[in-house]
Structure formats: structure tokens, C-alpha cells
Amino acid sequence: MKLTEVLEITGATCVVGEQLADIEVHHAFASDLMSDVLAMSRPDTLLITGLTTPQIIRTAQMLDLPAILVVRGKDVPQYVADLARTTGIVVLTTHDIMYVASGKLYARGLSG
Amino acid sequence: MSLERSVEALRYLELFSNLDASGIMSTTVHALHPEDRVAAARILMREKSISGVPIVDADFRLVGLISVSKIIEALADGRLADSVDSVMVRDVISLHAHDTFETILSCFQRFKFGRFPVVEEDGKLVGMITDTDVLSAIIRSFYSVYVHDQRRTMTLGSFSALSKEFENSADFVYDISCIGLENAGEGSARLKVFLQTKGFGESVVRRASVCAYEAEMNVCIHAGGQGSLRAIARNGEIIVRVEDEGPGIENIDLAMKEGWSTATDAIREMGFGAGMGLANIRRFSDHLVIISGKDKPTKLEMIFLAGKE
Amino acid sequence: MTVHDVIDSVGADVAVDGDTTRLVTSGYTCDLLSEVIAKAAPGSAWATIQTHVNVIAVAAMVGISVVIVCEGRTCESDVVERAAKEHLTILYSKDSAYVVSGKLYVLGLR
Ligand SMILES: Nc1ncnc2c1ncn2[C@@H]1O[C@H](COP(=O)(O)OP(=O)(O)OP(=O)(O)O)[C@@H](O)[C@H]1O
Ligand SMILES: [Mg+2]
What we know:
The structure holds 3 protein chains of 3 kinds. By secondary structure, chain A is an alpha/beta fold. Chain A has helices at about 5-10, 35-40, 55-65, 80-85, 100-105; strands at about 15, 25-30, 45-50, 65-70, 90-95.
């Protein structure tokens, strides 16, 4: 699924990486615990999380994840956005809660 | 054996739960066909110093086994020129390629033979397991996860399982110094870039970075944020060493257990403290040494083999 | 839908058999306990990978109808006992929280 579709399905906006919106992800993973995310080793995965700490960027960076969808409309602090920019990770944010964002994407065919 | 001891033994069996027959067996197998002469089996045993020869049909399916004692019997009866078929054991106790470590052990205990052929579903012979094979598999897996805390010190003294290389120099050095969690993970991020420029493949770099990150986060969360992250990366091998200044881990076995954590609620709200970090490190590294103890520094050394993908 | 319907539809194992006739009116997926306290609605099906004993306290406080522990994780016996005392149903699913959420959402739980 293209990130542009993720934007459209979840009504998200792009915080970092507009130019990369045609990147594709093949899976999604929803978690707020970074070690849980790190236990998974599939690079082409969209990380869905409720956190906005620099560690979400680091975690994505370690795993070569292309993009993060921040849920619950949380503001991404400037320094976290900057870190995402320098590491080349796309950050999207939606007002949906994790359950709803996951449900919508799953329903539209993005597998786990 | 007291009940307590056997419970402990069972717990250790778990350590080997990743080993199955196919991982333990030797795959260089010397076999004969039923129509071969008994004398050929005798020569094979002597030359290869093996104590039993599996007998297979034209499709390599196991049909029998000839052991030293059968050869001795045949010698006594003057039947060395007869075909193997006439002296071999036909109902051979064999193992399946996917049999667990526990099954293998109980097979050795029940049947008291020194060796067992390993077959696949279709009955084809794929390997042999001797007691030496089992022993060396145990030793290998002990090396892949080695923990050293106070209890070990009592028996092993100051024996060190850490690489000597770091005593002189390292290819990559990062001083961990983190107050709060803001810049936690920076060292691992730099290590990742360093490994990429060294030309290591994507997947070994990912494994090494993930483990370095887990270890670095542990220093920041559990050990006051002061420590070092170093790496040696040569000859298709990445060695990562993460050290801190304490307070140390009192019981490493417990700390390695998935889900076990001493993290505070505040840490959990920041996305850590699931108790999965060390379990991840163990899963993604090829060799792991952890040395720690109560009020001691923690030293963690992980090795990643580029060829092991 | 009821807790019973959730059990049937997500294909999870029942770890603690609480009140399965309870209504489930929404879904909530989250591993941060403070957020669940603040934001989850009573009657939710809560998907998480947390297995901490505090999960039960939070679920009871919020009025969660069923907790779905994901990714094949299991709770320690003290957690199970505590849940049983609260008549809270706990399910173990092999799926990730994403997939569990997806399955419930597709079934119409919004
Ligand atoms: N460097 C260290 N110094 C002191 N204690 C440590 C250190 N590393 C780990 N520990 C102890 O081991 C426990 C388990 O560590 P592990 O990394 O597996 O989980 P965690 O850090 O608690 O949670 P997670 O890694 O999932 O965020 C920790 O809770 C802590 O008690
Ligand atoms: Mg950790």
C-alpha cells in the first residue's frame, strides 16, 4: 500500500517527508513498546504508535522501517521531526486512535 | 537426584529447545548397501573409526544397521564374505530430522546405543547422531549464550569469556552519556552508519544495530546512562561490546526472561520496560556473553556473523 | 456484540473465563496504561501486549469488557488470578495487536 493511500484512509497529514509519499509499505505493526517493535524484523512495515519520543525514530531507523503513523493526533515535537528528517523516515499523524487506524488499514488490505 | 535438582535439569533442557536432530547430527555419513560384504563394513568401521554402519537401499532409504558386535559375531562364525543383508539388524531405532533435543536424550537413555541414524519423512537417511554429537551441540549452544553472574564466579573464578581484541583497540567507539532519554540511541545509530560504510549486508547490520540499541537503551534506563559502546568489524564478523558502571544485574537468567523487567511505570509510559530487550538480543545475536552481578558493571558482548543469514 | 462473540471471531484462547455475556461496544488498542485510563471507553475490547498485573487494575477501573493479550504472550499466574477475581475475561491471541484490531474492526466493532 502506498503511503498516499495510508494518508487518505486514515485522514492523516504528513509531518515529515511529503516528497516520499509514494513509498510503499507491505505490512503494518501497532505498538507503544519499542522492544516489541524491535522483536519484529520486517523492513517494509508501517509502524503505528501513540508515542512521539525520539525513540520511535531510532527504532524505525534500526529496523529500516520507512514510515511511522502517529495516532491520536499527537503533536510531534520539532526535535523529533528533525531527527526523522535527518534519518530519512516519513512521519504521518492521524486523529484516529490506534484501534481505528489499524482497523481501517487492515480493512483496506494492509496485512499484519 | 533430588526433586529440586531434576526441576533444575528440566529448566536447562529449555535452553536447548532450539536444537533438533537435524542441527545436532553429523551429515557426513558412511553407509553400505545390503548386498555389500560384511568385510566391507569391518574395513569401513576401522578406517573411519565408527561403531556402526547404516545400511541403505538404492534410494538411500534406511533398511538396517550393522554394529561392532554383529561384526564380531560374523568373524567368529567365519561369515565375513556373506552379504551385509544376512547379519544386519533390521528394526533399527532411528530418529527423525525434526525430533527435539528432549526426544533425542530420552532415546539415548532408553536404548543405550551409542549412535542413531536420522531419517526424513520418506525414510531417507540424512545423518547420524552419536553421544559425541549431542555433547558438542550442548557445548556449542552454551557458547552462544553465556551468562556470568555471582553464582558462576564461585565456580569459574575470573575466567573471562570476552574477546581479547578490545583490550588493544576498537574499530568503533562511542561514549554513552545520557541524561534523560532524549539522546539515547545515538550511539547505535552511529554504529549502524559505520557498519554500512564497512560494507556489511543489510540484514546483519540490522541485527547488530537492533541489539546495540537494546543494550544502549538498557544502559540509559537501568544503569545511570554512563557507559561505552564499542565494535570491532572485520572478516565478516561484527563484535559489539556495551559496558556500563553498574548497578549491575543480580540474576541474569531472570533478566533474560521475556517479560521480566524492573522498569518503573514512568519508563513504561515512554515505551520501554516490556522486558523484551535482552530476549531480543539473545534472539538476534549469534553469540552472546553477559557478565554482571549485584553492584557490578554490566558487560555485554554480542557477535554477529555476516555469513549466517 | 458480546465478549462471547469476540472470542469466536478473533480465534483466541480463553485464558481467564470471566463474564462472557458482557457487551463489547468499542475497541481500544494501546500499551500505555495511562492512556487507557484517560481515553478508553467502558465496554471496550482492549488489545495489548502488556501482561503486567497493572493491566488488570486498569481494566477494572475503566470497565474494560475483555482484554486481548497479543502476539502469543501469556500472563503470569498472579495476573490470571487477579483477573479471575475481577470476572474479567482475558484472551490470548497469536496475532499482533494490529491484526486483532483489524479483525474486530472488520466485524463492525468501531
Ligand atoms: N545494563 C543494565 N544494568 C542494570 N540492569 C539491567 C541492565 N540491562 C538490563 N537490566 C535488568 O534486566 C531487566 C531486563 O532487561 P530487558 O532489556 O530485557 O528489559 P527492559 O529493559 O526492562 O524492557 P525493554 O527492553 O523491553 O524495554 C531490566 O528490567 C533490568 O532490571
Ligand atoms: Mg531493555
